[in-house]
Give the backbone structure.
Amino acid sequence: MKRFLRMSYLVASLGGVGFFTMSMLLLGVWPGSVLERQISGMSPEHPMALTAAEERGRIVYSQNGCAYCHTQQIRYLERDVRRFGRSTLAWETVFDFPHLWGTRRIGPDLSREFAIHTEDWEYQHLYSPRGVVADSAMPSFSWMFDGAPDRPQQEARDLLAYLETLGRNREIAGSEGEAHARAACNCSEEEKRFGFDPPLLNASAAMPRNASEIPALGPATDRARGLRVYARNCASCHGRNGDGNGPGAKGLRPRPANLTEHEYRSERVAQILWNGVPGAAMPAWRDMAAEDLASVTLVVRDFYKPAPAVPAPSSGAAQIYADICAQCHGERGAGDGYAANSFRIVPRSFVTGRPSQAAAVLTVRDGIEGSPMAPYRSRLTDAEIDDVAGYIRGFFKP
Amino acid sequence: MSDPAGSFVETKLVYAHGLAALVTLLIAVTFGIVASIELIAPDVGAGSPLLTWGRLRFDHTQGILFGWLGNAFLAFLYHAVPLLTGRRVLSARLGEWMFGLWNFAILAPGWILVLLGFSQPLEWAEFPLVIDAFVVAALILACVQFLPPFFSRGLEDMYVTSWYFIGALVFTLFAYPMGNVVPELVPGARGAAFSGLWIHDAVGLFVTPLAVGILYFVIPAATRKPIYSHFLSMLGFWMLFFLYPLNGTHHYIFSVIPMDAQIGAITASALLGVDVIIVVTNLVLSVRGAGWFPRDIGLRFVATSTILYLIVSVQGSVQAQMSINQSVHFSDWVIGHAHLAMLGFATFAAAGGLIHAWQRIPWARYDAMLLTWAYWLLLAGVSVMVIDLTIAGLVEANLWNSPAPWIESVRAAKPFWLVRTLTFVPIVGGFILLLAGLLTGKRGAGLREVESSIGLDAVLEIAPRSSEARV
């Protein structure tokens, strides 16, 4: 009997070790081999590995605990896909030694951070998070800068380089890569929907929607709601009074629009809210409720302070416009000149938005730093600048 | 007064690890408090890489794991193993080396390296790999120190606490390298599968068996009544070691990890709740008669730990289910759960075990009143914190599922984060009183109290033996 007991304990102890081994095999090794097959079937041929700078940035990201507030794992769930984009596929993670999936989301998921924000926004945000996102709980990483958001040190540059790799391979794979992966995916229809269907809403300015996809924002009357939305989401850059001088504006190039100097048609505001301004720091807000977007449109349009009338431009202005401006801004000022498509930041349409005379003069004279708009003070006289500024204001159709 | 445990127990090592546990606890809690303040006032640490939120967060949990719980468990092992086996641990000299290794080659340099930016971003594994080498060495030494008494005694008729301790020592040694090293070698999703395993194993194979072993030891030793059922004890033990390791993938539900593995882990998580109900039933039936708040303060901590173990485990089983998980995962709900497990269940078990062992060191000081205050403050602190964070999690989950911009969930969380930070008052107060209760008072006061309440016989214990079980 005693012998039997002893034997049974021995067997049980071996069984205990067996339990642990089994857990590793069932939940570690076996899923690993399934994932490996999945990766070899679905991955594009040569996904881009990290460069030395990006790899250094990954270490900065790791060692400061970024992954403990920002996940890098979009789950196969409506609520994740709607906010952050297509679900994470296994092949996207093959360069992550170790993985940075995370189990807590205080800030948003960063799996698709590639091209969502511009460099100036990212630096401004790392330097002073609450400058661009009011009430953010993110720590300031100003110690990675030389005293200003546009003076990043090595660590900040590396970190940004790394952030720009998040989701990059997926973008590069393009529609062809998506089709290949979708065909190779041994998964349910629902998983395919979350994993591959183009996300309708995720707010990336780099992935603008066509004009036809932008829903018309209904007429809004709830100004109080609009003011609340504006104060919480817009004022950090555009300023409390809409003058484009919020705390986050300092580091942004081009600077946030001065809303008091521009008269916008509501569909122009809607289009910018929906798509953001690709190439500039203005993010897309298309994941917000339509009523919020409509009411904030009301507020934005109300910031415009009509300026005193100015004398009509002379006939020479049309010629200057045709010679200098039309190639980008279009013959009729709709922002559709033949060169318009070659710029990351598209030329402004004067049909849907009109700057004040003063703002137009300033822009023509000094250009817009951080955008393709060049300064013309050396090519045009002050009188000509006045003239052409008045001329472009004439394209506006209220 | 003579040494009540005979000459078996290395009381100096119990004392040293106990003291180290409480000192490192206060440091680890300070990391947590500063991190929590930074969530409501993010500019507090601005400008200093050392005070970056993430680094403080790493040091907080690693400090709790190695500093507080690790030292407290080692203290209790030095008390309990000789009593359970009737044999000394391998070597007191080895114990001194282990103490130095644990606190001065693992914890202190680990904390400093993390603050300087050397770490790995893996949960419950944040200390850098160079520290992990020392951890594995220490875990091997712990096996060398504590296992021989069990084996020379023989495994027959062994009490359940012994099984838990052996299990914890052996499986932590297996699981630790898996969680710390494999994700560095196996990338992305495949590595995450192993990471998930370790996140649960750190809690399930290290913290839980040692804490439950304490519960099973202190209850019969302090009530002088045998455990209710040896059969249920062993059933619970084997179910734990079968089920806990199979839970890991429940940290990555709805991920790209194969659905079959996810469903397996979710099922195991549900069954784990059943296991804990069995274990807690057995423990509660054993402690009954002493009341919900026993007079013996060590036993009181332990009895409360038992109840918290039930709550946190059932909560865990529930939140692993897909319908719940999809909402509350990633939210403060989980932070509440983690604190209920570590600050509730594990801390109360470790504190109860430490007090129990401390009381039986003939020359140690002891002040029961301060310890009673510590108990109430800690219970109040952890209750408020967990309820607060659980509600915060529900609020966040609700906003995440709405079209509100992400930042709205941060704004909504801030009042809850403020309350969470304020719970540091009762919690730190409780820990300071716990330390004070063990460092002030008369020498030998603890032992005299044992003598007057349940008699000194009980102290000459007296391992609770399995053959004495009531069922």
